[in-house]
Amino acid sequence: MKKILISDKLSEAGINYLTEQSGLQVHIQTGLDEDGLCGIIGDYDALLIRSDTKVTAKVLQAAKRLKLIGRAGIGVDNVDIPAATEMGVIVMNTPDANATTTAELAIAHMMSLSRRLPTADSSVRSGKWERSKLMGAEVAHKTLAILGFGTIGRIVAQRGHGLKMKVIAYDPFVAPEIFADLGVEAVSLDDLVSRADYLTLHCPLIEKTKNIIGAAQFGMMKKSARIINCARGGLIDEGALYEALKNGKIAGAALDVFENEPPVGSPLLELDNIVFTPHLGASTTEAQVAVSVEIARQAVTFLQTGEAINAINLPRLSAEELKKSADYMNLATILGKVVVGLATQPIEKLEVALFGRAAEVETRPVSVAALVGVLGGQFSTPVNRVNAENIAKRQGIALIESKTAETEDYVSLIKVTGHCADGSISASGVLLGGHHPRLICINHFDIEVVPEGTLLITRHDDRPGVISAISAVLGNANINITRMQVGMADGQQQAMAVISVSEPVGEDLLKQLHNVQPVHQVTQIRL
């Protein structure tokens, strides 16, 4: 039974969707501080949040079972992503569920600034009738500049076209054809800010975008330009914005988000050419339902199938791709365990090669699965496909991938090779019937083994009596041999035995096996 904790307010529709699913227990407890969340999070497999819950490194350390953090909304700056990745916890959000709502708020702010609506409202309420003083500006035929051309930015562009505006955009991560398909001119950041009549921000807050609009950019802008931020606080240098508005370098601004929320004591509050809203980007009835239902669906899909939709810290793999790759990933993990088990020095480089039909699946999930096999059991935190690459980099393990449709003896094959200071160890495997893993080669020794349970792998001289001597040692210790395969290598006077035993053996017994005169090496691997 999987357990889900909801620690922020979600819509009733999203909660109902979760409670209707079999095999899930859903608990709701909102308003938890860090200590309160730490006290209970250890019992849960998934945590669903909005913006109030702060998922810190301390919380993640206490989350021993946690596999998923689901954010109902876009921003995940309230989650320690590096810590979650380190702990092998997937973080996902719902980037499209409230896209229309946020885009519409940006357009609303643009119109509000153009026609000075908040000032006009205040004027009428105070008994004034200042028509000539409240002169506005049309948006038609003006330049709408969009910083960040993801889902929200593209919706804003479409609305801008509907208002007969010239739309330009900057996003270094979007292909040129995407801009062209939407009739938007792709420009540089400097061109964007210098040509803008209305500059609206729709990019994430990351290290590279922190204060992306500052004094230098305000110095390039038209004095008649207006800036709108309904994305994340911190994209605009608020000190530089204050100076630009106060000194007339730009005409106005509208902010829905701030460096500190609420912006208590901010000098921006003293100005009359800026409009504020209290982080209302997703605050519509439709958006609240949409993000809640979407994160509920994503969480259920992950817990039931392993498909991580909209994962922040894991490459996207569809349910179909995951199903197609699952058996190969399992085989790669087994091969990784064999390779690291046989290594006598730390692995410095891991090569993962896919041949034949295996080359038809995505390479990276299979390679990461091999890393999981190599790294598993060596750290206090579980190693999985979320954190394996990060851990490997920290350990100084380089990952090399290759694939080819060509193969000789098998329809499909995976080969994992670990390179150490004292040499290399390779293990090759296939899927029998497309699903059942088989270990078919270790280094140059051809050997077909069912890779499960506990394996004893020996290197010994190829002479009569060795296998019976090994069997006698195990028999005297009441260790049952369930399978045994012996492999030969061309041109060598040594053989390899892979022995499946009923239970793990102790160090004393391993020493006894190693003391069998023709045996050079004995390794125990638990799969």
Model description:
- The protein has 527 residues and is α/β, with parallel strands linked by helices.
- Helices cover 34% and strands 24% of the residues.
- It has helices at residues 12-19, 34-40, 57-62, 81-86, 99-115, 117-125, 151-162, 176-181, 189-195, 215-220, 238-246, 285-305, 319-342, 363-375, 388-394, 466-476, 507-514; strands spanning 2-6, 24-28, 46-49, 68-71, 90-92, 143-147, 166-170, 185-186, 198-201, 226-229, 252-255, 274-276, 347-356, 398-404, 412-420, 423-432, 436-442, 445-449, 454-461, 481-488, 494-501, 519-526.
- It has a 7-stranded parallel beta sheet, sandwiched between helices. Strands 14-13-15-16-17-18 form a 6-stranded mixed beta sheet, with helices on one face.
- Helix 5 packs across helix 7 (151-162), helix 13 (319-342) packs parallel to helix 14 and helix 14 (363-375) packs across helix 15 (388-394).
- The chain is elongated and about 110 Å long.
